[in-house]
């Protein structure tokens, strides 16, 4: 039987706000040690919010890496100790201005499992009522309501490029059509 | 008209291998300055390789963040200056052991556009012939051939959790069913 991967230790090398960079050291099955940098971001959530049977809410915000406004689903990072479902409700209220009467778990995934310690949870929201919370101080948010067919078209055509939003919409579309 | 977001500068704070951590400073529309940490990884690729009309190749490798074997599509980071399409062919040969006679661009997206400077390109490979390249020295790879319907089921059920693989498969499924 081949030797397993063995964790040898971890060292924090940087921190700002909720983001930490650490170095994890592992011994590979052939005995060689490898050091892997890991950016730790924790739990992130996204919500596909149906305002009625056929239409969903998208939000637009400036993304500094893209240097333009990105159209996305409401979502963001969970607070320390916050349940993913509670984070989804809070982000929907902060960014979308709505509370969901029903939040259904759709899927979860690792956006970049080689160097980003972040697990993304995707939800579908229904039964929306207006119930806003103040947004983060660096968020300047636009909102659009579009047919779900248009959101799927945008995800397939590359008009929605943010990973969690695109995954949530395409998972919903692929599951709905099975 | 609202003032735009203005980039004020960038500073590298860490580097190991192909990964760099930098701090980007921006002035928000309200005049307040924000510093955003960014992990720069560059271009990453994934390939959905059809070995015949109905079956695709998956690879399994240990992922230190998950502490277990993750079933994924062949893929990985592009080399400096390497074209995404060339990177897809190279990763398919290194991890999958095949060359594709035809590589079709499917989509691209930002896996984590708030703090990871990484753009992921997704391809479909067909016309495969055996033509392996040596893998990276920390990769110990298993291979499985499954029906595409099983790969879609695995992506929907959460048996495939790596973002680029899951996105590529679900994008293919959602587009195929329109």
3D structure, described in words:
- The structure is a homodimer of 178-residue chains.
- By secondary structure, chain A is α+β, with helices and mostly antiparallel strands.
- Chain A has a single domain (42-176), classed as Nucleoside Triphosphate Pyrophosphohydrolase (Alpha-Beta Complex), CATH 3.90.79.10.
- Chain A has helices spanning 84-96, 148-157, 163-176, and strands at 6-16, 19-27, 33-49, 55-63, 68-72, 75-77, 98-109, 116-130, 142-147.
- In chain A, strands 1, 2, 3, 6, 7 and 8 form a 6-stranded mixed β-sheet that branches.
- Chain A is elongated.
- The N and C termini of chain A lie far apart (40 Å).
- In chain A, 38% of the residues are buried.
- The mean pLDDT of chain A is 95.
CATH superfamily of chain A: Nucleoside Triphosphate Pyrophosphohydrolase
The CATH topology assignment of chain A is Nucleoside Triphosphate Pyrophosphohydrolase
Assembly type of the shown chains? homodimer
Instruction: Give, in order, the helices and strands of chain A.
Output: EEEEEEHEEEHH
Second-tier CATH architecture of chain A: Alpha-Beta Complex
Count of structural domains of chain A? 1
Topology:
Two copies of one chain form a homodimer.
Chain A: E1 6-16, E2 19-27, E3 33-49, E4 55-63, E5 68-72, E6 75-77, H1 84-96, E7 98-109, E8 116-130, E9 142-147, H2 148-157, H3 163-176
Parallel strand pairs in A: 3-8
Antiparallel strand pairs in A: 1-2, 2-3, 3-6, 4-5, 4-9, 7-8
Task: Describe the structure using short key phrases.
homodimer, six-stranded mixed sheet, 178 residues, 9 strands, alpha+beta, Nucleoside Triphosphate Pyrophosphohydrolase
